[in-house]
Amino acid sequence: MDFTGIQTRILSDRQAHLPASVMAIGAFDGVHRGHQQLIRSAVAEARAVRVPSVVWTFDPPPKVVFGRAKPLCSLTEKLARIAHLGPDLIVVARFDRLYAARSAEAFMDDLAAVNPTRIHVGHDFRFGHRQSGDTDLLATRFAVTLATPVACDAGETVSSTRIRALRAAGRLAEADALQGPFDGAKQMVGRLLTADLRFQRT
Prior knowledge:
This protein is an alpha/beta fold. The chain contains 9 helices and 8 strands. The strands form 2 sheets. The protein has a 6-stranded parallel sheet with strand order 3-6-5-4-7-8. It has a two-stranded antiparallel sheet with strand order 1-2.
């Protein structure tokens, strides 16, 4: 699809199949500046090796499903923020307690459907039942690149947890600076991508 100059396909995890790809995986709650760097790295590598770039994410974010946090943004905004970073494909896995109960091996089987030549991921990424899978296990089946943490001007690591803490303290400008801008054009892209995802899921 092509919205406001952005060419991005969006599929559910059940529909994604590719002969090769470079992938970024994460909940990407808020798609903050750290997430943006991780995704851009994957997109750049995919372009360099001439394979599709894939962002694999979850809706709702796992922390939200288990009641540990409220989402930093809607799915509409999340998809728009990701799409503006230029991936060829966004894969959205519907996350619930049944999904969380699946084995780590089953999740890696899902990833194998897009044949990633490399996966870009945060160092603390966990997956599978009781978070039994980690980046070391992921690396037994795929080439893995761990993202370098991004720090703010104050030297603090940019994270969804820090953004939530800043918002809770009323420091909204600082929180927004860590998350990055979001405008009306992106909102339109997000609405269209979300509508497309819902159509694809039926």
